[in-house]
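Cross-posting from the modeling subforum.

Setting up a comparison between two proteins and wanted a second pair of eyes on the formatting. Protein 1 (sequence, then structure tokens):
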Amino acid sequence: MQLGLLQAIEMGLRNNLGLITAGYSTESARAARLRSLADLLPNVTTLTSWTSEQVNLAAFGITLPGVPLIVGPFHVFDARAYGSETFDLNRVSKLRASSEAERATGLSAQDTRELVVLIVGDLYIETIAQASRVDTAQAQLNTATTLFNQANDMKRAGTIAAIDVLRAQVEMQAEQQRLIAAQNSFAKAKLGLARAIGLPQGQQFELTEKLPFEPAPPVTLEQALARAYSLRADYRAAQALVSSAEHARAAAGRERLPGLELNANYGDLGTSPTHSHGTYTAQAGVRIPIFQGGKVRADVEAADAVLRQRKAEAENLRAQIEFEIRNAMLDIETAAQQVQVAEQAVGLARDALQQSRDRFAAGVSTGVEVVQSQQALATAEENYINSLNSHNVANLLLARAVGEGEQQVRNYLKGTH
């Protein structure tokens, strides 16, 4: 199958276990909010009963002249609806706290999506880099093989010594080993990518993207920070957790306040459904906490500790975001310069190799110069691949740091479906 970058990311978003479990956490948080909401809503139940009873008065020590000891049987029919409602500010604050916690969980799930995009993108880029290493190793092996054959021909013609043929053969075998190692690294990189996106391990696929060099879009540090603080799902989740902790702290303090309780029931009562009459009970009361054994103080202190922790986490994350953005912008600038230098070095190394081959063919130099030129070209090409890979990863990290990884991956890496 042909596998593009965006296709790999979509598969990762569908199959990643972390994202699946994040969805379950969101469902749990939603259930907690519904539970808090249920505490504020009325409870209504119905009960329909029919009772037949016979009483032995003597068993209770009741004996009255003219009254039989056995009373009954007599029947009671009761069909009734019961309603109750408890209202206090403590429960209102708990509902607000659980709502903010649910929002934080949803934002955490969004942040998990960003992490999946980052991981899959990084693995895809690394696999592209390994594929490029295979291509360069194959090209180096082809060159070394050509030089070895050329050296054999020149030795048979008596223009060079046997040592030059031996050097060419050693270089050719070294390039064979380098190609084998590159092919192994490429295969392992494909396995890692397939594992991350949920492909069966036996599925064969080819990457449709190349290793591009696209300059990062111009953005100032201030612009990046402003966008990150407004877009980063993890930072918004941290802020929601602070808000949830504030409401939880308010709920703990409001445990001291009175609460209103309402209870009512209405139904038909009689000896049978056809011989019954409506009856009702309505009750309203105010519950006033007097002494709770220090429970309120303990709850307030615990809520205060959680609130301070959430605020510290949010401040630390804010500083971490600035660090990530600064770090990514430095990496992008440095890697862009390295790409330009490495590209020039590859061109110079190729020219040097061609000239050394010409000199060797003309008999004015030994095979040592050709081998050194080959090694210099291999080093230059490896440096170019590394710098290009670093630049693309830095672009992806900047997109993640700003909170636009999933949206901007197409712009940063020029992916296509």
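Protein 2 (same layout):
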Amino acid sequence: MNLKSIHNIYFIGIGGVGMSALAKYFVSVGKIVGGYDKKPSLATDSLIDLGISIQFEANSSNIHESFTDPLKTLVVFTPAVSQTNQLLNYFKSNSFQVLKRSEVLGIVTKNTLCLAVAGTHGKTTTTSILAHLLYQNNEKITAFVGGVSENYQSNFIQRGTEISVVEADEFDRSFLTLSPDFACITSIDADHLDVYGSAEDMQVTFKEFAKKIKSSGKLFIKKGLPFEGISYGVNEQADYSALNIRILKGVYCFDIQTPSELIQNIHFSLPGIHNISNALVAMAMALEFGCPVSGLVQALESYKGVQRRFTYQIKTEDFVFIDDYAHHPTEINAVHQAVREMYPSKKVAVVFQPHLFSRTKDFIDEFATSLSQFDATFLLEIYPARELPIAGVDSEWLLGKIKSPIKKLISKSEIVGEIKNLGYPVFITIGAGDISVEVTELKEKLSYAY
């Protein structure tokens, strides 16, 4: 498909983090862009500010006339949109070109030098670090990030179009549309079993992704994964190793042993050993790409993180409120490790909104184990996203398996009262659903309380 012949792009689910980044790209190259989403959000507000027309009713009669010519319009949809969506079916039944977001991303990046970040955990943070490193070293990149970078206040980072940095999403096998020059795999924990069926099937698909790398390219793998490539590891021998890790004034300081030299006294502000691992592979990819050591060390020190990845909402002597996107047991464990490292002697309360009935069912015992590590655990009802309920799968079932000293099923309206009454000095909200919508109000109400 030749995108140069397409004048207009219409996105169904345009407010999604991956969709909105792609929409911003098409605006940057001069296309007319429009779309639909279920409701207004900060993401849709930012798109409207760019001149993008957005409708919030799935009614084909509301489609702007710019997007009614099948010969000039490409329609892009996200798998998160229901197949019964009226707009999706209207475009399909009226001879429009209709492609998944991943297919379009594959087309956009095909003729660029592509660096892709894959893995069941750490994709967004690693992608944003890599994009930041290359951007700060004046590389001509376009980066599509699965979250909002704190440095750029956007999920779309651009200095040129010759190089693409992309988050290679395993959901719906989306990353198989890519043909990267460089790629990394951060982890392969079982997830999305509604798509894959088994952990073994998922691993096979990751191996298919590895084969997509161009013959002249490079694969970076976390030590211990069943792949051949450039290995990286924290406090272990690998091609790239993070060593001598210590915390100085709340910031990590560590060394990187590369195949040819020791880079000493690197500073990095994100908490958690998992984030050192993310920074390490981003540094390795940028070094192998050809960026200078001094420029990369300086850029990494200035990296601020991604919204909803261990993001401090309140940080005072008496009270800390952190928000995180964690929605898998491994990610919850990583949040727990980081918060215990930062606040080793303080009581920690967590509010968790499970995401998807299927994920809750598949990992019920693992969720219970990870959540039981906190001093108090509050659960919201399961956020269904694209799914229908599964009989017997609910937050009450999960609550019964959790062994935290204090545990309770609550509603969103009860969060502030429960946290105030508890009086613990550290509070975390976690989940990939609409718990994120509550964060601003929680921050405001809890700021007054402390």
